[in-house]
Structure to design on (943 residues):
């Protein structure tokens, strides 16, 4: 009987070997993944045990941890929570670090980031709970407030950038929410607030400035088309483009009218300059078809389309439909068909034109500081791409100045400061309802702020709201706050 | 002057005592560790708990010196260390649950440990020769089956955690399956020793396999039927796998025929697949096994256990520093995950090695045993511990679907503890018999001897 007992011993060894392999897999290879899993209370409890870093805007905390006397040693408090909700996100005991920097910069805030490794060693030796890093943001509270107040009750988003550096000066998404409601320690209230927020059909948790379903850009996309045309060296601002009353889409019998059915210049042709100034649909549809999808896509990508950024909030990539047929390419020329953008992307287009054609990488965290506020890491401005030549940038700037001075964007004009801009009215669906756009920068001669504004259609029907009427005044308020800073 | 020196065989009792004191020392350190980590004080009942553990285990050591001085010296220290660590973790979870000193689960567990150790001593004192058990082969069968089926009775049968494994009489709940495991091992050993010739030698060869005769399949089919009944009626894959696996393993050891394993495993797989097809509770378990993190899953028990183990990582959080109490049944079914969280991968490797060593000592005893019944009994008892660990820990770590078995010596619960101490006592008794030098043997009762080689007449 000894031989089968020995073989049985081999079977037992194999069973134990399987257990050793399985535990090693779970506790070593899978451990990190398990720790980061949503709803892992252990990770949360661990993080609640130490002081989380604050998020500062010009030295004032917009999110900080305050000591409590209950089981969870620290509670997250968001001062001006609704104003900065999509930037900070929330920090909930039940639902974890969600949305905003609380999630994207969690490892820094919680102190577990690798860049903090050497600073943790003394804590480890002294047996102190390590504390997280503090984030100093690039946001300007005056511009942020101006943007939020100007947008008011309307759904939409505003993004303002410093075109010279890429600093995000304002980022607003409406409707907003109060992160304190889901971050408190009253767990049943938190649960209720969370359910309400998630069931809200207006989707307040979505940061419309950088994500969500994205928007059709409408006429603001004409900036990209113009850039492509000028960069091709086959067009100048003075090139006359055919601008019929209706443009028949190639290969179809469908035709595109101008906005309101009007002629663009009274004649059969309109210069590129005037086409952009009055936002002529037929000439841009013709131009897009002339340039082709590839050229438009290249130009769009030069401005940042097709790339998802992490700044460190995750930005959904804007997209240009590369596989469009001729008729669809013509439609993309006026920002319709399947072109989809984030407001941040349109702000980058304006910022690139404002900064002599060089798009700067947008960033939100200016400085990472340790708990004694000594800087650990400071973000240096980095060039994202050279989207257009300096000459092209100057030519487009002149056109955009004309849009505000004598075109569709007159309501964005500021007294004493030259504003460059472009309006857009982007149709969606089939009922004719449209979102209102404005993007631009100021002062035109030496830009310090670039902005993109979108105001969602209030209804599913056309109510006569255009970018020039609804979005331009909001952009004006933001630019005013920006040029005066 | 003489050229003959007397050779004194080593009993190993000194080794055993040293290892035993070492084991109790580790347990006491762990006790202090938990108290300091959780309450910033040395546990007030340290002297009482430590003293009792020391007194009872040293007492068992003395019984071994008296009644089984050639018993394997590793069995007692390993069992003591595991039992003690279980007590520490249960106390740690008592603290986490905020239980006051009067209602500590750890205190109850300590009493059960004392009872278990006392029963083990009783077995060693009363059972001078394990071969006596062979006389009770069929009584053991009846007792085993009855115990096994008791939870299915109305009134006293009791369901917990989806499995019907308990009986509850006058406020005491008991898992009779644990004791049934011993009774059935005795029955299997006695039965197989008697019938192994027929089972191993008769039959046709087919495709290189020695196939049994149709009528010899009877016992295997009976065991299979019983295990399927447990799976369906008690909703427990663990016990089912344990009993059937144990039977097949012992059948193989007795007959040395691989065909039995193949037939047995095919039968079990077929039964399991049919049960999975038909019964929703089996499907639930399988779904939890395949995708524990499914947000629509019926339970997040497996997921929570895995998160706990992941939280422990390589080195663990340290005793008292983790959150094992966030997992359900943290001090019983999931106690191994609790250790994984607080002692880390390193800690549970050590604990798995302790179990492996325990099983290895048991199998070594089986190899050393000089007659068939002892071999089969020792191999069966040792294998049952190994298989049980595999089923329990494999369930937590998603090697197999989760089941509701206890972790030997660690889990809170009296029946399991008592059963396992009795198993240890039986292994001690068999190993004493196996290692005893010829000169010191009690005159063997020839009736008690059974052949170790199939078909060879004594």
């Amino acid at each position: 009987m000894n031989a089968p007992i020995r073989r049985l011993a081999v079977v037992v060894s194999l069973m134990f070997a399987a257990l050793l392999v399985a535990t090693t897999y779970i506790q070593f290879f899978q451990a990190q993944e398990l720790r980061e899993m949503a709803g892992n209370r252990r990770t949360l409890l661990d993080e609640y045990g130490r002081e989380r870093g604050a998020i500062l805007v010009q030295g004032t905390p917009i999110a900080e941890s305050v000591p409590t006397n209950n089981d969870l040693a620290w509670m997250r408090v968001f001062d001006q929570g609704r104003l900065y909700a999509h930037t900070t996100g929330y920090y909930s005991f039940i639902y974890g670090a969600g949305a905003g920097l609380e999630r994207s910069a969690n490892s820094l805030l919680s102190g577990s980031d690798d860049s903090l490794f050497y600073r943790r060693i003394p804590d480890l030796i002294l047996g102190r709970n390590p504390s997280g890093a503090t984030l100093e943001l690039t946001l300007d509270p005056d511009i942020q407030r101006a943007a939020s107040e100007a947008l008011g009750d309307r759904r939409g988003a505003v993004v303002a950038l410093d075109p010279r550096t890429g600093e995000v000066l304002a980022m607003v998404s409406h409707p907003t929410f109060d992160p304190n409601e889901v971050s408190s320690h009253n767990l049943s209230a938190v649960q209720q607030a969370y359910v309400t927020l998630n069931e809200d059909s207006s989707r307040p948790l979505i940061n419309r400035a950088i994500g969500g379903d994205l928007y059709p850009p409408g006429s603001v996309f004409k900036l990209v088309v113009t850039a492509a045309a000028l960069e091709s060296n086959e067009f100048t601002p003075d090139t006359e483009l055919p601008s019929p009353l209706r443009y028949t889409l190639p290969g179809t019998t469908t035709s595109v009218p101008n906005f309101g059915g009007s002629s663009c210049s009274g004649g059969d042709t309109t210069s590129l300059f005037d086409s952009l100034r009055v936002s002529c649909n037929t000439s841009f549809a013709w131009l897009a078809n002339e340039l082709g999808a590839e050229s438009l896509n290249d130009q769009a990508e030069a401005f940042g389309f097709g790339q998802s950024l992490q700044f460190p909030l995750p930005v959904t990539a804007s997209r240009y439909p590369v596989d469009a047929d001729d008729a669809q390419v013509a439609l993309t020329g006026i920002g319709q068909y399947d072109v989809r953008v984030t407001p941040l992307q349109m702000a980058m287009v304006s910022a690139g034109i404002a900064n002599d054609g060089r798009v700067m990488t947008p960033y939100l965290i200016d400085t990472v500081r340790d708990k004694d506020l000594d800087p650990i890491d400071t973000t240096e401005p980095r060039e994202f791409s050279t989207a257009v030549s300096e000459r092209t940038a100057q030519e487009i700037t002149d056109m955009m100045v004309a849009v505000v001075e004598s075109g569709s964007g007159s309501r964005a004009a500021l007294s004493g400061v030259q504003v460059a801009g472009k309006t857009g009215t982007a149709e969606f669906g089939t009922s004719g309802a449209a979102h209102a756009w404005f993007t631009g920068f100021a002062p035109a001669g030496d830009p310090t702020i670039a902005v993109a504004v979108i105001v969602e259609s209030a209804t599913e029907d056309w109510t006569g709201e255009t970018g020039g009427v609804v979005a331009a005044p909001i952009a004006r308020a933001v630019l005013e706050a920006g040029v005066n800073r | 002057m003489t050229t003959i020196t007397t050779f004194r065989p080593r009993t190993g009792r000194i080794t055993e005592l040293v290892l035993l004191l070492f084991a109790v020392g580790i347990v006491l350190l762990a006790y202090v560790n938990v108290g300091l980590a959780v309450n910033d004080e040395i546990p007030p009942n340290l002297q009482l708990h430590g003293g009792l553990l020391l007194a009872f285990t040293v007492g068992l050591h003395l019984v071994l010196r008296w009644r089984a001085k050639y018993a394997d010296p590793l069995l007692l220290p390993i069992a003591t260390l595991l039992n003690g660590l279980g007590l520490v973790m249960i106390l740690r979870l008592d603290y986490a649950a905020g239980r006051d000193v009067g209602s500590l689960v750890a205190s109850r567990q300590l009493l059960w440990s004392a009872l278990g150790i006392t029963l083990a001593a009783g077995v060693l004192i009363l059972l001078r020769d394990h071969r006596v058990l062979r006389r009770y082969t069929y009584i053991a069968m009846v007792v085993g089956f009855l115990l096994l089926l008791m939870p299915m009775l109305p009134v006293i049968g009791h369901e917990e955690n989806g499995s019907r494994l308990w009986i509850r009489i006058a406020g005491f709940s008991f898992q009779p399956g644990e004791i049934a495991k011993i009774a059935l091992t005795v029955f299997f050993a006695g039965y197989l020793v008697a019938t192994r010739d027929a089972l191993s030698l008769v039959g046709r060869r087919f495709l290189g396999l020695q196939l049994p005769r149709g009528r010899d399949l009877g016992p295997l089919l009976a065991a299979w039927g019983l295990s399927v009944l447990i799976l369906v009626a008690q909703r427990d894959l663990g016990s089912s796998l344990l009993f059937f696996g144990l039977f097949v393993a012992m059948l193989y050891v007795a007959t040395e025929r691989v065909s039995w394993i193949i037939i047995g495993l095919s039968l079990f797989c077929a039964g399991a697949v049919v049960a999975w097809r038909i019964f929703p509770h089996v499907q639930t378990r399988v779904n939890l096994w395949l995708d524990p993190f499914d947000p629509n899953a019926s339970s997040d028990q497996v997921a929570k256990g895995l998160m706990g183990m992941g939280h422990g990582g390589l080195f663990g959080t340290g005793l008292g520093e983790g959150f094992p109490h966030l997992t359900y049944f943290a001090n019983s079914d999931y106690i191994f995950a609790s250790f994984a969280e607080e002692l880390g991968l390193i800690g549970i490797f050590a604990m798995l090695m302790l179990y492996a060593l325990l099983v290895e000592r048991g199998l070594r005893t089986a190899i050393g045993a000089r007659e068939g019944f002892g071999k089969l009994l020792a191999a069966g008892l040792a294998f049952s511990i190994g298989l049980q660990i595999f089923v329990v820990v494999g369930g937590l770590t998603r090697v197999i679907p989760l089941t509701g078995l206890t972790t030997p010596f660690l889990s809170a619960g009296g029946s399991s503890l008592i059963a396992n101490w009795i198993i240890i006592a039986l292994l001690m008794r068999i190993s004493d018999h196996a290692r005893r030098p010829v000169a010191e043997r009690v005159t063997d009762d020839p009736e008690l001897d059974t052949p170790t080689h199939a078909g060879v007449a004594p």
